[in-house]
Amino acid sequence: MERQKRKLTKDLLIITLKMFPDEILKDLLYDRAPLPGMPQVISLPDEGMVILDSPEKIKKAITFKLNQLDKAGSVHEIFYWITKPNRLQILQFVTGIYEMEKEEYSKILKDIWMATEFPHQMPIPKLVDMFNQTEAHLLMSEDEMCIYTNLPETVTVFRGVQDKKAKLRGLSWTTEYEVAEWFANRWQRGKLYQAEIKKKHIFMFTNGRSEHECVVNPRYLKNVRQIYSL
Question: Does the reported pTM lie above 0.85?
Fold first, then answer.
C-alpha cells in the first residue's frame, strides 16, 4: 500500500529547507555574486554589508533569513524568498515529498515560471512533468483563458534562441513573430524557429510580460523549421 503524502504547509516547507547544507541553503536564500570569483555580499540589519566568507557569517545570514520565513503567511509567500533560479527545482523537490492542492500548486508554478529568466536550465522532461500535474484553466487568468479558447485547433508558434546550446524544443514559444525575433536578436547570435502545435498540447497561454507566450509540451511540436539565423 502506497504511503499517503503529508500536505505541504508553511512549517513543513521551512523544515525541509533547513535540511539542506548551509552552503546550498545560502544560495537558495541569497543571490549569488554577479560575476565568478566575486564574494557574495549581503546586507544584515545592524551590521550593514557582510561578506559571506566564513561558516559563521553564512550561519548568521541563514538564521536571519529563516526568521523572516517564519513570518511568512503561506507556502506561496515562502517561495518569493527563495532565489529565482532555484524556485522551480525546489517546487519540483517538495512536490515529490508532500501533497499540494492543485490550485495552490498551479498558482505557484505559474508565478515561478513568469519570474524565472532561464527556466530551461532544468531538464525538459522535468518541466513537462511539472506542468502535467496541473490543468490549463488553473494556470490562466480569465482574459488569458479567453484568448486560449479562441486559438485555432492548430497554432503557429515562434521561438527565438541565442546559440546552438539553446534548447530548440523548449516549452516557451510565442504566437507573435516579432516577440520571437526580439529574443533571437537581443545578443546578436540568434536563430528564429517556427512550428505548429495542437491547442490541446499547450499547457497555458500568458501575456503577463506582453510576450504572447505559449507554454507547450515540446514533444508534440510539428513542422519545426528555422526561419533565419543571424
Answer: yes
